[in-house]
Amino acid sequence: MxxxxxxxxxxxxxxxxxxxxxxxxxxxxxRAEGAEVQCLLSTGASRFVAPLALEALSRRRxxxxxxxxxxxxxxxxxxxxxxxxxxLVAPAxxxxxxxxxxxxxxxxxxxxxxxxxxxxxxxxxxxxxxxxHPATRANVARLRDGFGYVVVxxxxxxxxxxxxxxxxxxxxxxxxxxxxxxxxxxxxxxxxPGELPPTTGDVRETxxxxxxxxxxxxxTSEPIDPxxxxxxxxxGKMGVAVAEAARDRGADVTLVAGSVSxxxxxxxxxxxxxxxSAMLQVLLDALGGADGRAGFDALVMAAAVADFxxxxxxxxxxxxxxxxxxxLVATPDVLATVAERARGLATVPLLVxxxxxxxxxxxxxxxxxxxxxxxxxxxxxxxPGSGFGTDTDRVTLxxxxxxxxxxxxxxxRVVADRILDRVRSLLDERDASPQxxxxxxxxxxxxxxxx
Length: 451
Prior knowledge:
With 451 residues, the chain is α/β, with parallel strands linked by helices. The chain has helices at residues 23-32, 51-58, 76-83, 94-102, 108-115, 128-132, 134-146, 172-183, 237-248, 276-287, 334-342, 364-371, 412-436, and strands spanning 9-14, 36-41, 86-92, 120-124, 150-151, 155-158, 164-168, 212-217, 222-223, 229-230, 252-257, 269-272, 298-301, 308-310, 328-330, 350-357, 375-380, 392-393, 395-399, 404-406, 410-411.
């Protein structure tokens, strides 16, 4: 590859500024100049830019955790620090400037800058008053004069606050020019590909860009009294895997989380709903879009909703003595209710249900028809390695058209991407049908009920 940065390796640090969305185009420019790039994300940056686009363009996994190791056991940010010809931090937020000036290695961007002997180029972006504050000015002066960093001052222009003033990220070509100038005349630091972080070939494209996907995860907790509840063994792993996969493929994701025992991902909208009734209300609120059109394109109902709840909930903790008899009533069928409501909309979203069975999946086709959904993802939770709390799953995908496809035991993230492959395909067919005159798939925009 030719270009002013041909043969160079650049660490691109992205911090929590709203200008982080420009990092994708900045990465393109660096690559166009011939650079190999490793993207580094602070915690705040992950709220503004999803890793997938960065990974697809750089062909390297984003380093977003200072404790992460590479597949071969090497420490990610140390490898970048040792191999980089330059480290570029763009945008650099006021918070990051303060942390860097104080040497606080709380994120992978700061840690890399602390550990490297390569030139560091910093392009700040923030509100004008923040840029002009004496604390920020002192931090910038320390980076420039004390550390020898190259600081590309922000431009004057419209800001995210609606004001106009200094603080707008410098133009991307100017930032690239600063990197080129910083490495000019310096030898290439990395001796070969083996000294760089590895590339990856399994990055997904942003094929769900512009799609609105709602995912539910975890179990529900139906209260008995202020202390006790009726629940199930769902951990939320499968739902979280689907939400992360949809986010990484460019979708606008809302994760409706019940009772979960796994960390919830960033870069998407999270709504907590820990009972069946609460989850139903959240989904109905999300469903009701403007002008009678659905508020989302697809719902992946991975949550394990409790089937029963106590008829009455005690306001004080029940005493243990004497045993306990509960009068249980059925909880609302969340997915069936959403499907019924969706039929009256001008656009009907794609609906995907999950069925946790034991011993046999014979009931799944009837369950799909009864609930009125497009697909049902079924698994036998009694099978070792498949079900609640595991990192793998063996599922069978049952479709409304009568098709059934059994998948082997796979990591849950792989299962999630396979489900989304089918979701994407059906959504594309749905969108194409008005133009081609074909019959829309189940849940199509013609307003027909899902088959």
